[in-house]
Amino acid sequence: MSEATVSVKVEFGGGTELLLAPPQDKRHNLRLPRLKEDGTSQTDVHYLIEWIRRNLIVEREELFVEGDSV
Length: 70
Hints:
The protein is α+β, with helices and mostly antiparallel strands. The protein is 16% helix and 20% strand. The N and C termini lie far apart (28 Å).
């Protein structure tokens, strides 16, 4: 693993996997940049949630995230 990235394992359940693009796998191994796009701060859970919303959720994102809550 590069020091520029962080490896994260996420698992979806309770029907949230149905919001993902096919195949609707429950488990995902992600490699995220250690620094956010602005280059000033480290990746955190808020960034992870936004990354999932932008890159994995394909429909009804309001069922996954509302404001800053999952």
